[in-house]
């Protein structure tokens, strides 16, 4: 009666069966079809079709840097002016909500801008973020009560979170993985 065990090779001991191939035949077939050499992977990572010329990349970087500096400077200015605002509105205990409203809405809205920019485009999302930021700060500057300041700082935070998030997304879009 013929044996169902494979014939022993000179390297293998005849008493031990040969090891089974790892994975199912489907897995091994798809693995060999999808395997790429490191050079093919590197070409794929750098093969982005919408690359900007260097001068435009620098211009975009400067514009994004200006947006982020204004957003960061805003927090420093508000922290400096809090004592004066608290005195003007006689709001000693509630004044801590002014920066907190900004930070909470900024944190809450930042991930939403990523999805929003996937649907409507990077430029639209960045313009909406800058508009919310500008309108929120402008109206907060003309507020007549501390509650209005808190609410409009929250609106500014929704825009500020979008500015930070969109800046990171836009940079990842215009710079290849190899150059990062």
Structure description:
The N and C termini lie far apart (65 Å). It is built from six helices and no strands. Helix content is 71%, strand content 0%. With 180 residues, the chain is mainly alpha-helical. Helix 3 packs antiparallel against helix 6. The protein has a domain at 54-174: Up-down Bundle (Growth Hormone, Chain: A). The chain has helices at residues 25-34, 38-46, 54-89, 97-120, 122-141, 146-174. It is elongated and about 65 Å long.
- Rg for CA atoms: 29 Å
CATH topology group of the domain at 54-174? Growth Hormone, Chain: A
- Secondary structure class reads mainly alpha
Architecture per CATH nomenclature, i.e. the level-2 architecture of the domain at 54-174 = Up-down Bundle
GO cellular component, one term: plasma membrane
InterPro entries: MFS (IPR011701), MFS_dom (IPR020846), MFS_trans_sf (IPR036259)
Domain Major facilitator superfamily (MFS) profile: 60-180
Subcellular location: Membrane
Key traits:
mainly alpha, 6 helices, 71% helix, transmembrane helix, MFS_dom
Quick overview of this protein structure:
The protein has 180 residues and is an all-alpha fold. It contains 6 helices and no strands. Helix 4 (97-120) runs antiparallel to helix 5 (122-141) and helix 5 (122-141) runs antiparallel to helix 6 (146-174).
Element layout with pairings:
Layout: H1 25-34, H2 38-46, H3 54-89, H4 97-120, H5 122-141, H6 146-174
Helix pairs in contact: 3-6, 4-5, 4-6, 5-6
């Amino acid at each position: 009666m013929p044996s169902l065990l494979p014939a022993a090779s000179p390297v293998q001991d005849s008493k031990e069966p040969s090891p089974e191939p790892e994975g199912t035949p489907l897995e091994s077939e798809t693995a060999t079809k999808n395997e790429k050499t490191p050079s093919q992977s590197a070409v794929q990572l750098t093969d982005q079709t919408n690359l900007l010329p260097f001068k435009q990349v620098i211009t975009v970087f400067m514009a994004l840097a200006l947006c982020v500096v204004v957003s960061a400077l805003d927090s420093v200015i508000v922290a400096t002016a809090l004592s004066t605002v608290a005195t003007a509105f006689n709001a000693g205990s509630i004044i801590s909500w002014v920066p907190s409203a900004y930070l909470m809405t900024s944190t809450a809205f930042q991930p939403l801008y990523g999805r929003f920019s996937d649907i409507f485009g990077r430029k639209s999302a960045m313009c909406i973020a800058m508009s919310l930021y500008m309108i929120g700060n402008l109206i907060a500057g003309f507020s007549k009560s501390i509650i209005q300041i808190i609410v409009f700082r929250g609106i500014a935070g929704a825009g500020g979170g979008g500015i930070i998030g969109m800046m990171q997304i836009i940079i990842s879009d215009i710079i290849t993985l190899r150059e990062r």
